[in-house]
């Protein structure tokens, strides 16, 4: 057996720690930029599917590459950048000092910073070429004249057939349309219909103009799991709202351990640890002996 050749003395861990942290944050930044990212839910527009800041503030993991291979489908929950005409849905109090802004930027790398006021989370209702309207005689939302069964709705506008509907003297605020979704666009709505500034915002009164659809290109990714707080660990289901069995949910991810919420950061830390491990462990030659 060959004796190990003397080499450089390993640097103390307290010297290597800042380097490892920089590597970890760099890898985390790359993961969140291109693959998955943690987003904070600011408003209550998706209750009870997702809780907003006033009721705990869910953090969700968003798949940023899934729509590189397929377009968003009706029933999926997506995070997107609001068009310029969309007003912010929740007032976001950001840092005002350079020190606070620095740590806010650092927190955004690991999903701990306040949300961007121009980012929204909604459910896809219809895609390009489809016509959306409300309501049928029972108050259901319709796509291409067919009513949807939406078990995820939390609270909708009041609707009473024959009393407060789309033909009554005082029209229900649930009513709008019909509106045809233009090419390369999506019609999106919140699960908390009576508290959501979504595609229907502005057009629920006679003569009102809808805030309208969003460009497909504005979609950041698909929200697929709630990772924080711990009490809310669960998958985010997509629903086949336009299928033959409209009440059935598509297979969604099962409840997951809380560590998934820190997946990007954990991956970065793991990468940094492997780099350090490789530097500290002696290499072996092809015969298996230490060099």
UniProtKB/TrEMBL annotation:
* GO molecular function terms noted in the UniProt entry: serine-type endopeptidase activity; signal peptidase activity
Domain called Peptidase S26: residue spans: 16-227
CDD domains (alphabetical): S26_SPase_I
Query: Entry's InterPro entries?
Result: LexA/Signal_pep-like_sf (IPR036286), Pept_S26A_signal_pept_1 (IPR000223), Pept_S26A_signal_pept_1_CS (IPR019758), Peptidase_S26 (IPR019533)
Cell location: Cell membrane; Membrane
Question: Which residue ranges traverse the bilayer?
Answer: 12-35
Q: Which reaction does it catalyse?
A: Cleavage of hydrophobic, N-terminal signal or leader sequences from secreted and periplasmic proteins
The catalytic activity of this protein is classed by the Enzyme Commission as 3.4.21.89
Which UniProt keywords are listed?
Answer: Hydrolase, Membrane, Protease, Transmembrane, Transmembrane helix
Gene Ontology CC:
plasma membrane
Q: What class of enzyme is it?
A: hydrolase
Q: How does it sit in the membrane?
A: Single-pass type II membrane protein
Catalytic residue positions: 45, 122
Which domain of life does this protein belong to? Answer: Bacteria
GO terms in the biological process aspect are: signal peptide processing
Entry protein name: Signal peptidase I
